[in-house]
Amino acid sequence: MIEVENLSKFYGPRQAIKGLNFSVESGEVVGFLGPNGAGKSTTMNILCCIMPASEGSARVCGYDIFEQSLEIRKNIGYLPENPPLYQDMVVSDYLAFSAGIRGVAKSSVASARDRVLEKCGLKEVGHRIIGKLSKGYQQRVGIAQALIHDPKILVLDEPTSGLDPIQIIEIRKLIKELAESHTIILSSHILPEITQICQRVIIINEGEIAAVDSLEGLTASLRKTERLRFKPRNPSPGIVEGLKGLEKILSVTEEDDGLFQIECELESNIQDKVAELALSNQWGIVELSPLSLTLEDIFLKLTTEESEVAS
Amino acid sequence: MKNTLLIIKRELGSFFQSPIFYVLTTVFLVLYSFIFQNILAFFSMQSYQAGQIQGMNIGLNLNDMVIAPSFQNMAVILLLMIPIVTMRSFSEEKKSKTITLLLSSPIHLKEIILGKFLACFLVVALMMALSSYSVMFLWMVGEPEIGPIVSGYLGLLLMTGCYISIGVFASSLTDNQIISAVISFGFMLFMWIIGWGAQSAGPNLGAVLEYLSLIDHLENFLKGIIDSSDVIYYLTFIVFGLFLTHRILDSKRWR
Ligand SMILES: Nc1ncnc2c1ncn2[C@@H]1O[C@H](COP(=O)(O)OP(=O)(O)OP(=O)(O)O)[C@@H](O)[C@H]1O
Ligand SMILES: [Mg+2]
Questions:
Q1: In angstroms, rounded to a whole number, what is the distance separating the alpha carbons of residues A294 and B2?
Q2: Where are the alpha helices (DSSP H) in A48-134?
Q3: Mean pLDDT of A77-88
Q4: Same domain, residue pair A53 and A178
Q5: Same domain, yes or no, for A187 and A247?
């Protein structure tokens, strides 16, 4: 569905993305993950033919981004980082306008509009002025606009940024529904979000692809050790020493608030042992839980490993 | 074409929602009415005096003494008003990033530019239509010739088109509406007074400068003469401005 080859983009002398290569199959849901300034939005803008690449090529639905951008734009629905909403327009007029310029035939504009109003939960606010809606509803209108012409591909740039937790859950639910019938690319800073929605993740850092993998694959390949968080009820001086005495435990570090971080070998199932020790020494247990890799960990690992290889 | 119509419709909708349009139209009508009323008062005084003196009735007609100067003044007022009409067109879209909606849609850049241009044009044409009460009033009290009125409106509309073409171009340069208005105002004024350089420039350059001046081409229209060279000048000017706008937006896109 999408093939990207050697894609680069210069903003003046600054290179925002550096020779990206990846492809997205039909029906897939792919996440772009990366810190601020990684080049996610730039890549998306290029794929949606908002601006051209400086070097390299990309094909979307078999059409070339340089030569056949009009065809691509017919097949792609785009929610940019800043939803392109005319603040002074009424929601339903705005959607009808979007439908019109996205090439929906005049006779089906009304039905397309009603379909997305329904789908994005906008029915009650259809007659209201966009500028007066809350951020969450504005974001929905942005998504509705991307769906209006029933495109094959959806490109969503940080669809949940700036929303409250309840809205985030609802938008994620909506995206999951959409994933059943669309190819989706979405970007995010938030790992759990990608974990929940995407089948595959492309990690971009400083304009380069740091990794492409399914999420399980990625965490598995990066994990050399497991980590646990342990909080005893009665902190006592001997805890670190005591824990270190256990088999398979590699290191123990004491953190603030009486928390301990335990690093152990993979699949050592050390929790039982830790619990036994804690109870027999009357340390008590407030918390004992595995720590999953965070986005920062993944980045740190990827970047440090790469520099290790390089040096 | 369908896309252009959609854009015109949206633009007009947002014009009529914003207070700018109403304020602008009011100021325009007040200024114009004031000038028109003064010109008319002066004319009635003159014709009264002419009536006193036998045989001086020749040479005093409504067209030359009221309509032509009123239209000339209207051209000046429009020069001040049109930058405010056009400043929004692309600057606002850029600022609020709504331009990505247009750019990510399967429509041509020309359709967008034409839509913006025509929307502004219709707004100004509406303002002019409201001001035509003055001509109708003359119609009721006197007997103006219809020819120069029609050609005068045609000339004004063509000149308005040039102003708007400049304004739309200026708004494609920046996402700041104030800067856009200032650039277009400066450029319009320059194109207006460029003919003043004619006297000091050599005969060849002088002729060119005179030909380029926006206002000089209006004279014929106000006299009731529709010269094809004037029409071609205005139309070329409009198309050239829109062409430059296209180049600007396209190059921004492709960079
Ligand atoms: N219009 C522009 N002109 C110049 N530089 C730009 C422009 N847009 C982006 N950049 C630069 O290109 C790099 C990539 O930006 P981009 O917006 O693609 O990052 P991103 O991954 O979307 O970041 P974020 O998570 O903050 O949205 C950044 O360093 C940014 O400063
Ligand atoms: Mg971004």
A1: 50
A2: 69-75, 91-101, 109-119
A3: 93
A4: yes
A5: no
At A8, is the secondary structure helix, strand, or coil? strand
The structural domain count of chain A equals: 2
- With CB atoms and an 8 Å threshold, state whether B255 touches A52: yes
d(CA A41, ligand 1 centre) in Å: 7
Q: What are the backbone dihedrals phi and psi of residue A90, each rounded to the nearest 5 degrees, phi first?
A: -80, 145
Q: State residue B213's pLDDT score.
A: 84
Residues A191 and A272 in one domain: no
Instruction: Say whether both A92 and A12 belong to one domain.
Output: yes
Do residues A123 and A251 share a domain? no
Report the chain B residue with the minimal C-alpha distance to residue A72: B106
CB burial readout A153-163, b (16+ within 10 A) else e: bbbbbbbbeeb
Across the interface, whether the CB atoms of A145 and B101 are under 8 A apart is answered yes
C-alpha A123 – ligand 2 centre gap (Å): 29
Please indicate, yes or no, whether residues A151 and A214 belong to a single structural domain of this protein: yes
pLDDT score for B183: 95
Residue in B101, B109, B112 to test binding to A, most A beta-carbons within 10 Å: B101
Best mutation site among A101, A129, A139, A141 for testing chain B: the one with the most B CBs within 10 Å? A101
Query: Do A246 and A142 share a domain, yes or no?
Result: no
Please choose, from the candidates A61, A85, A23, the residue with its C-alpha nearest in 3D space to the C-alpha of residue A151: A61
* CATH assignment of the domain containing A186: 3.40.50.300
Report if residue A58 sits inside a domain. yes
Distance CA B123, CA B65 (A): 28
More confident residue, B140 or B117: B117
Q: Is A215 in the pocket of ligand 1 (CB under 6 A)?
A: no
Looking at residue B209, its amino acid is: L
pLDDT in tens, A217-267: 766 666 667 778 888 888 777 888 888 888 778 888 888 777 888 888 777
Chain A residues in contact with B14 by the CB 8 A cut-off are 86, 88-89
Domain span at residue A280 reads: 224-292
Domain at A255, CATH number:
3.30.70.3190
Atom of ligand 1 nearest to the CA of A35: 25
Out of B6, B18, B97, whose CB is closest to A100?
B6
Q: How far apart are CA A267 and CA A227, in angstroms?
A: 10
**Residue count of chain B:** 255
CB-nearest partner of A101 from B3, B13, B253: B3
Mean pLDDT in residue range B200-207: 78
| Residue A41 sits in the same domain as residue A182 | yes
pLDDT in tens, A295-309: 566 666 665 554 444
- For the ranges A127-141, A262-276, B92-106, which has the lowest average pLDDT? A262-276
Residue A271 resides in a domain: yes
Find the chain A residues whose C-beta atoms sit closer than 8 A to any C-beta of B: 48-52, 70-71, 73-74, 76, 78, 80, 82, 84-89, 93, 97-98, 100-103, 106, 145
Cα–Cα distance measured from residue B62 to residue B68, given in angstroms and rounded to the nearest whole number: 9
